[in-house]
């Protein structure tokens, strides 16, 4: 479990790399800054509010808060008793907290990539505080804290819905309220805005895949090696399916070898198998991942048609495939029911939309969401940070 | 073992980084695409064919297929029984499969770097399917599946021969059939073609070194901490020896501080100690690695003399030093015999040459191996992918 | 523990990335070369001398050498007996050696970044041999080998003083003897010399944070999951505190969003909680890290005022915050005394200053420390290595 925590931590570097690689070099420092402060603020906020909201112990199924665990997080030191008998000895209180905190920060990071290249730094960071500190943990408590979705039999192994679609809904609301980047949609056509570094994006996707071993493997929440290792296999085959699905779909639909769609296909496949990684066969994992790889391509095209400008494809990867994965678990997973899954998707979706809308809307009417046109054109790095992402001299 | 699997997975990012760093920026997307699809296709193919070929259970020692494990891989889900008593409880069926699948994909990745910058994408990917799905696992079954080499007392702890030299022979056959890059050898002189990013190559080598802890450490295939930790020490000292050997040899022979030879020296040293990491002393590991570092420099120079154009030095690292490491195990390793080692090198080498030649030759006469002269000059990125690896604006 | 060793290994990639990212592209190969050879030479030297000096068994408390462990390191192979009963079975002899060797090389790497862009390669590498082989292990033996500081009750959990401040003092002495880079301080004003790649620096900081989980987590030196997991929490919150402290301090003092100070703040926070990570509460960790983040900004400004040119802020991160963390442990840590902590800081500091001064001074008067003015202006890559760090063609 501690290893899993370290692997989930490395996902934050993965997100930072993917997002910096897929966006323009004039905004590189800005996006790295956001992706560095996201886990920092996310973890602190989760310690301040989130963990106690998400795991409230006995509660009414919708909202609760554990004063006890809040107190322990902040003021207990090396005394072993807080972990004595915790989780039947499967892992410790501290591991549980840190693992969940790393997860929580993920939900905000998903938003970060979608809204990049035009959101105000302060607006994004404030959104992160409230989304990770309040919205995400309340939704999470409905399932993982033993709330009403858990009682209804909703199945979400490692968070296709709870983490990924919650992040994805936030991203969708964000890009809708922000509007597209200048020049993205002109006279009915969509222009491709090239990312700055394909190697950086590739590094990011591999690190996310690696981190997913912790994300899904750790969610077995015990030392059952048979089940944990099966989960690693289904996770891997989901990623492989997504890559293959994304590759062939973009070959057919877009008539070119689109490496970006392979990379997003891998992430789509991973999101897709996250809901049911422990109750599907490897063959089903390959299939679910493959469908996710197909869906991600069409989702990207659809969003562009709707003039919803998602810089890195985060909504398509995390929301579209998060929903697909959750429903697929209802179809293929042993012991899961389609209707419970659908109900969970709708309940969490409604809450995430309302929560993220309220936060973004208040920010919009108070501090404003969007940087000035001039700042956007010049790039956020020179505007807000005064330095450039790359200062590479190419001598002749 | 699951940790080891994650570490071997990260080797694929290591290979991607090394190969993209050592090749030209006009082919960066192409090489990253290949190195991303290599584990994807490799793992799926290994699940489809490889694992059942490599571990056939009782068989004639040369060729076998386990229908049982094929069935389990694809259609079993979380039921624990497939791992009950597996490997005396040392690890599970799933871990075994995934770990071996990660290994298998490595053999193809080795080829990828050597043949870069001029091979057709489709040709390379088709080669990967057959090499990982059929050639590698059949050779592997001779030793690790309990075949005739195992009965002869051939020792290959983590695959200096089975993995690295098999990949290296494939690379050698590939670059021979492909011919050198345009402009590499002109009027009897060899021109240096600069890699695009030394930092990326360095990141790759460190990740490979890290992954080797899993590659070698995991090959102890049990939880014997004494032996596993000794293996980590011999692995590390092999890498150190290789770096030192590569550095001083290039200083003396090439009269300059050649960082590429240090990086390749590290990989050479790692390959060198892979065959006998569990039965040599740390001092012997440093020595074997040091000799590997010397050999890699001379091997690179020799290949250039023969006009065999290996973009990243893969043949020198994996084949030359794979052979050296296997033979060195016969000299230094407790309980290994030189003649058995030599016999294993020859048998696996013959099979790898024949196997890779057949695949590459059929591809050559059917779809063709090599891109057009124009595509090679323009770079494969703009030709096949339509995007560039780096889009970094350097404002003044 | 083996996992922790792998994580500490990855810190070397972290340092390489941070230092290459924060320095100019004309010196990229040079700094990567140094940071690759540092662990290589550091590990070999530590095996040759360091480990036996640092853990001499029974000794006079100041200087000792264990012939026994020297012999084992070099000439023992897979026989299990060297680990039988070692460390009460908590970890093996080999793990202990390798883990400590990875630590030791860290102390030299800290120096590498500070003195970059103008030190002679040979001078730096020779310094590393003596500092890792002799100075560091002797100082280390005073506490971790059971020497006089240990008997005095000095507390240094994972080396705020023993590792980080020892490295930091070496860096300070180095930059003082070397003098600033040409053009850094002109007519009383300090010019900002931009680093080549912010993404590379960010990757480095995340990898260091990850590695710190091994650095601190592994220092529990046992499988006590309660304490280990608490240490991961205090480590993480220290990093978060440092980021927040560095961010707000640079906002207030320098009136801009300085991402470099956030990155260095994270490292500062990690160094700050390293001395007492196992005996402080999470709240105290956040506070200690936060103060470290404040201190690192003022320390950077102070060094610039004194015309001590530290290319990457290594002295501010490792020395200033190493001292702060050690003293803070005396204030907040259960069972630690402020006076013992102060005494440890002074004793280790005096030894590190004297040791590093002697080595650097002898090198200065013999081979010389500094490259020629011409080489410095042209960049060390073209001068000493003949290649460039980046060869990226940007076609129009």
UniProtKB/TrEMBL annotation, chains A, B, C:
UniProt record, GO biological process: ammonium homeostasis
GO MF annotation, one: ammonium channel activity
Principal localisation: membrane
Subcellular location: Cell membrane; Membrane
Keywords: Ammonia transport, Membrane, Transmembrane, Transmembrane helix, Transport
Ammonium transporter AmtB-like domain span: 1-390
Membrane topology annotation: Multi-pass membrane protein
Pfam families cross-referenced by the UniProt entry: Ammonium_transp
Transmembrane segments: 36-55, 121-139, 159-178, 198-215, 227-249, 261-280, 286-303, 315-336, 342-363
Superkingdom assignment: Bacteria
UniProt-listed InterPro entries: Ammonium/urea_transptr (IPR029020), Ammonium_transpt (IPR001905), Ammonium_transpt_CS (IPR018047), NH4_transpt_AmtB-like_dom (IPR024041)
NCBIfam families: amt
Family affiliation: Belongs to the ammonia transporter channel (TC 1.A.11.2) family.
Protein name: Ammonium transporter
